[in-house]
């Protein structure tokens, strides 16, 4: 593949595929509202463009992690209903009110600050309540449910939603899923008539018992694998091609890269590629003589990374291409139809989430497709 500029890499985001993924998940969650999680710059795809595409596809509820992200969604989609997952930052209630952001309250301190603002303005500003059902991250403790309910009843305040988060939904048969479901149902009993939300992407795919009134897909929207051990049904959304700088011959016994961790066992042809860990290609994707590393596709053929990934460069062995050698300036596929986001994640010992959210390198972004 020849790169458009001939100079730098190109990250392509297919907004049509993003929209199709949302619509597909919306069909699975029929009977529940399907929100869209757009935190971390919409999983590396661009929060402005992706939020607009998801809104056009039909999403009306959005989840950001921080108020800054929430404001970016508000600017992109003025009519959206926006929850801030990290809750109410201390002293920031006025900002949330001005931007019409709904904090996901997870502590008594957050709750009291929000209620104080409501009393000050004589307005019941909307918010969600987050209960910890077993992750020990953000969230009210379960034994605080009655206290929270009592405080809300005292002031006549009704939250927009009660929610929690599954720890092991990517493993559908994990016992913790059923434990968390039961604990969440016990919390819901304290807040009758209030909408509830538990399912992320994997929870949405696990079963209707987890859907409640709203589901919150994230990784599946962007084409990543949500459930371990199953074929990923989602359409890929991102592709990344970067330029080859040089093709060179190397001899048996010579080493490649920093630390001389890879020694060639045969005469080889190597492609030096303008891409490194500064561009989101993890150092853990380095290949040595003990453990294989990541892969790159050159002319549609998978080629192994050899030697350490450095800040700006990586090296792949293209010997198996024979005489079908690339030319300098030609593009190598980092993520695309040959190598998925999850392929790179598996090779690097991580997850597709981290691969996607690391797409901040020195390459241009190009949006294709329509959400209509």
Automatic annotation (TrEMBL):
The keyword Isomerase is annotated on this UniProt entry: yes
GO biological process: D-alanine biosynthetic process
Gene Ontology molecular function: alanine racemase activity; pyridoxal phosphate binding
SUPFAM superfamilies: Alanine racemase C-terminal domain-like, PLP-binding barrel
SMART domains: Ala_racemase_C
Reactions performed catalytically: L-alanine = D-alanine
InterPro entries, per database record: Ala_racemase, Ala_racemase/Decarboxylase_C, Ala_racemase_C, Ala_racemase_N, PLP-binding_barrel
Positions of the Alanine racemase C-terminal domain: 237-368
Its EC number(s): 5.1.1.1
Needed cofactors: pyridoxal 5'-phosphate
The keyword Isomerase belongs to this UniProt entry's keyword annotation: yes
Catalytic residues in the record: 39, 258
Swiss-Prot/TrEMBL keywords: Isomerase, Pyridoxal phosphate
Positions with a binding annotation for substrate: 137, 311
Main enzyme class: isomerase
GO cellular component: cytosol
N6-(pyridoxal phosphate)lysine modification, residue list: 39
Pathway: Amino-acid biosynthesis; D-alanine biosynthesis; D-alanine from L-alanine: step 1/1
Family label: Belongs to the alanine racemase family.
Function: Catalyzes the interconversion of L-alanine and D-alanine. May also act on other amino acids.
Protein's UniProt name: Alanine racemase
Provenance organism: Devosia limi DSM 17137
């Amino acid at each position: 593949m020849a790169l458009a500029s001939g100079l730098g890499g190109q990250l392509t985001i297919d907004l049509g595929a993003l929209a199709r993924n949302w619509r597909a998940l919306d069909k699975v969650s029929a009977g529940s509202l399907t929100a869209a999680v757009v935190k971390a710059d919409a999983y590396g795809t661009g929060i402005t463009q992706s939020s607009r595409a998801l809104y056009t596809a039909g999403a009306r509820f959005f989840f950001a992690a921080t108020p800054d992200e929430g404001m970016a969604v508000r600017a992109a989609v003025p009519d959206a209903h926006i929850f801030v997952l990290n809750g109410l930052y201390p002293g920031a209630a006025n900002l949330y009110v001005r931007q019409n952001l709904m904090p996901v309250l997870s502590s008594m301190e957050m709750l009291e600050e929000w209620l104080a603002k409501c009393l000050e303005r004589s307005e019941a500003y909307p918010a969600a309540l987050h209960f910890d059902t077993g992750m020990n991250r953000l969230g009210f403790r379960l034994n605080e449910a009655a206290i929270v309910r009592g405080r809300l009843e005292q002031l006549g305040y009704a939250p927009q939603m009660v929610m929690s988060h599954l720890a092991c939904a990517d493993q559908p048969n994990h016992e913790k899923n059923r434990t968390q479901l039961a604990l969440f149902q016990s919390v819901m009993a304290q807040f009758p008539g209030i909408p509830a939300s538990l399912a992320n992407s994997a929870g949405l795919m696990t079963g209707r018992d987890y859907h409640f009134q709203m589901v919150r897909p994230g990784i599946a929207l962007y084409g990543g694998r949500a459930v371990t051990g199953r074929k990923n049904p989602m359409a890929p959304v991102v592709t990344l091609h970067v330029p080859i700088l040089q093709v060179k011959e190397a001899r048996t016994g010579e080493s490649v890269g920093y630390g001389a961790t890879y020694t060639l066992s045969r005469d080889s042809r190597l492609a030096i590629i303008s891409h490194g860990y500064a561009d989101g290609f993890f150092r853990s994707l380095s290949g040595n003589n003990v453990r294989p590393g990541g892969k790159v596709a050159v002319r549609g053929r998978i080629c192994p990374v050899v030697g350490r990934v450095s800040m700006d460069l990586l090296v792949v062995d293209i010997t198996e291409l024979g005489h079908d050698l690339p030319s300098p300036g030609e593009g190598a596929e980092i993520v695309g139809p040959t190598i998925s986001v999850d392929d790179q994640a598996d090779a690097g010992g991580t997850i597709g989430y981290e691969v996607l959210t690391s797409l901040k390198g020195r390459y241009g972004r190009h949006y294709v497709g329509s959400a209509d």
